[in-house]
Amino acid sequence: MPNLGVPELLIIALVLILLFGAKKLPEMARGVGRSLRIFKAETAKLRDDDEHDGAQTTAQATVQPQAQPQQPVQPQPIAPVQPVAPAQPSAEEQARQLEEQAARLRANAAAQADKRV
């Protein structure tokens, strides 16, 4: 595929503006930016988890097991079950909720502007 020059990029930009409109393009760019940030954060977490698991496996493999006399196991009293706090929503869920709130606010602002006119 040949390299894209300035004229080709201008034609692509013009087509995008015609398809989506000038007002939608900044919103789409923000959405793509948020998505990329979330994607990068998640892949970094996965990489960290993989490195952490790999380090543990290596450390466990190098440790020589030592024979220790076994002691009788004492029964532990069963503790009452504590209620579990609701889980924190994920970053994607929070972003979706914020986008929904922003859409509602925009709709309310548009409705109020229509009432004034």
Automatic annotation (TrEMBL):
This chain belongs to the protein called: Sec-independent protein translocase protein TatA
Q: Where is the composition biased (Low complexity)?
A: 55-71, 81-92, 104-117
Q: Which InterPro entries match?
A: TatA/B/E, TatA/E
Q: What is its main location?
A: membrane
Origin: domain of life: Bacteria
At the highest ranks, the source species' classification is: Bacteria, Bacillati, Actinomycetota, Actinomycetes, Streptosporangiales
Similarity comment text for this entry:
Belongs to the TatA/E family.
GO molecular function ontology, one term from the record: protein transmembrane transporter activity
Subunit (UniProt): The Tat system comprises two distinct complexes: a TatABC complex, containing multiple copies of TatA, TatB and TatC subunits, and a separate TatA complex, containing only TatA subunits. Substrates initially bind to the TatABC complex, which probably triggers association of the separate TatA complex to form the active translocon.
In terms of HAMAP family, this protein maps to: TatA_E
The protein's location, in the record's own words, is: Cell membrane
Per the record, membrane topology reads: Single-pass membrane protein
Annotated segments matching region Disordered: 47-117
Q: Which organism is it from?
A: Nonomuraea muscovyensis
Q: Which UniProt keywords apply?
A: Cell membrane, Membrane, Protein transport, Translocation, Transmembrane, Transmembrane helix, Transport
Please give the GO cellular component terms listed in this UniProt entry: TAT protein transport complex
Q: Per its database record, what is this protein's job? A: Part of the twin-arginine translocation (Tat) system that transports large folded proteins containing a characteristic twin-arginine motif in their signal peptide across membranes. TatA could form the protein-conducting channel of the Tat system.
GO BP terms in the entry: protein transport by the Tat complex
**Compositionally biased region (Basic and acidic residues):** 93-103
